[in-house]
Known about the structure:
CATH superfamily: P-loop containing nucleotide triphosphate hydrolases
CATH architecture: 3-Layer(aba) Sandwich
CATH topology: Rossmann fold
Radius of gyration: 18 Å
Strand order of the largest sheet: 5-6-7-3-8-9
Oligomer: single chain
Shape: globular
Order of helices and strands: EEEHEHEHHHHEHEHEEH
Number of strands: 9
Low-confidence stretches: none
Number of domains: 1
Helix content: 25-40%
Amino acid sequence: MPILEVKQLTKIYEGRVAHKALDNMQFAVGRGEFVGIMGPSGSGKTTLLNVIATIDEPTSGEIRINGRNPHALGKRETALFRRRELGFVFQHFNLLDSLTVEENIVLPLSLDGASVEEMERKVRQTADKLGIAGILGKRTYEISGGQMQRTAIARALIHKPSLILADEPTGNLDSKASTEVMEQLRALHTEEAATILMVTHDAVAASYCGRVIFIKDGKIYNEIYRGESRQAFFQRIIDMLSLLGGRPA
Length: 249
């Protein structure tokens, strides 16, 4: 069974002029896949991620994560589902300045009532994997953008979610930090079999995925698979973006 199933998903924003952001979209993400979502501005990428994340409601169709439709749950159950099944990595990090790096990372566990011993053990394991064990006592304003994003990845990973949703994870980073963050995500995917769905406008970041789905006007336009060479995959992504037209932001 796939981790994520998107079935005939449509999202219409009502207004003076109704806007169909998603139009009968359908795809699945298998366990352990690393899938990228790309498309021009206004193609529906963020709407898609928001509906999967239960931040937004679909107009019709459904999503299933581990066989369950979170939109059919009550408010409390949805919050619990999101906290336990999903991990989030955002462009703007969404870390809390008032907390240390360690306190930010363990937030999902503390919300779930985990013991201090469990939190300490898991934060050490996760920080070691991501190369941030040396900054656990620092505040977020004392560390670099790349370290902030690795902290956000650690927070997304610490409770072993079924699906990690990454929204432009390299959008606020320079090229060196972007490469480091993507290498970390790739390592998590290969070593931990993490299932990742990543929205990005960056062809270099997308080339770390095993598959990229391209969307345009709320519909799936095409998809390509990586194969052996990341460089060849990168070139195919560039070619597909030029076919799509428009800035892939």
